[in-house]
Amino acid sequence: MRVVLMGPPGAGKGTQAKRLAEKFRMAHLSSGDIFRAEKAGGSALGAKLAEYMSAGKLVPDEIVVDVMAKAIRECSAGGGLLLDGFPRTVPQAQALDKQLAASRTPLDAVVVITADDEQIVRRITGRRSCPKCGRIYHTEFMPPRENNVCDDDKATLDQRADDKEDVVRQRLEAYYRQTEPVIGYYRQSNGEHVVEVDGNRAPEEVTASLIEAVSRLAGA
Ligand SMILES: [Zn+2]
Predict the structure, then answer these.
(1) Is 160 considered catalytic here?
(2) Distance 146 CA to ligand 1 centre (A)
(3) How far is the CA of 207 from the centre of ligand 1 (A)?
(4) 13 an active-site residue?
(5) Distance from the CA of 9 to the center of ligand 1, in angstroms?
(6) What CATH number does the domain containing 69 carry?
(7) How many domains does the chain have?
(8) 136 - beta bridge partners?
(9) Could you confirm whether 2 is annotated as catalytic?
């Protein structure tokens, strides 16, 4: 079974991907994890990746496709595949289709977790963590007893730079500009395999809907 999982940043995609991969015994190919591993491995491709990533630049489609194609080849020996964070642009989706057609292993499902922008912003910008013990808080949903101070060790809580509102809004904007067209592409080429799941709910409910959708689409 081969599944693409999509959704805006902050929709809980990473957590859901892990659960789905486990449930259906698929290899979980997270582009973020694969890029980090490729960089650390010191290959020529990894060195190219590092160049773009350390400069904070967008990695060009050809390099993304090369890295992901290699990861797919290495793990698709008959097993299932869950792609998370790839494809992120239409040319990437076209390259993936070509590769899967060549190995006669087309996609079974494209699952999109949808979420309301304002809810995403609330969820992400409220995250805080303790620099001393690593405990995670949320200003609204899981606040510490004392404002902005860790319950366990009284350290002042941190907010990651990535979790600040303007950064979150930029990432959302990039998602709508680059990645939403990928959903349109799949609707056109493979419409009966595309399904949307409402991510504005408790994580367990979202997981249940995802499992139901993938079972139905993949005939599992
Ligand atoms: Zn702490």
Answers:
(1) yes
(2) 12
(3) 30
(4) yes
(5) 26
(6) 3.40.50.300
(7) 1
(8) 129
(9) no
Distance 87 CA to ligand 1 centre (A): 37
At 158, phi and psi to the nearest 5? -110, 155
Digit-by-digit pLDDT tens for the chain (220 residues) are 899 999 998 898 999 999 999 999 999 999 999 999 999 998 898 999 889 888 878 889 999 999 999 999 888 666 799 999 999 999 999 999 999 999 888 899 999 999 999 999 999 999 999 999 999 999 999 999 999 999 999 999 999 998 999 999 999 999 999 899 999 999 999 888 999 999 999 999 999 999 999 999 887 5
Rounded CA gap, 49 and 43, in Å?
Answer: 10
Residues with CB under 5 A from ligand 1 (ion): 130, 132-133, 135, 150, 152-153, 155
Q: Which of 110, 99, 98 has its CA nearest to residue 188?
A: 110
Contact (Cβ atoms closer than 8 angstroms) between residue 137 and residue 128: yes
pTM, 2 dp: 0.86
Which structure tokens are listed for 102?
């060549």
Domain span at residue 124? 2-218
Q: Residue 117 C-alpha to ligand 1 middle, in angstroms? A: 30
User: Annotated catalytic, 19?
Assistant: no
**91 in Cβ contact with 131 (< 8 Å):** no
Active-site residue, from 154, 160, 177, 216? 160
Of 2, 19, 39, 88, the catalytic one is: 88
* CA separation for the pair 64, 109 (Å, rounded): 21
CA distance 142 to 158: 14
Active site residue 88: yes
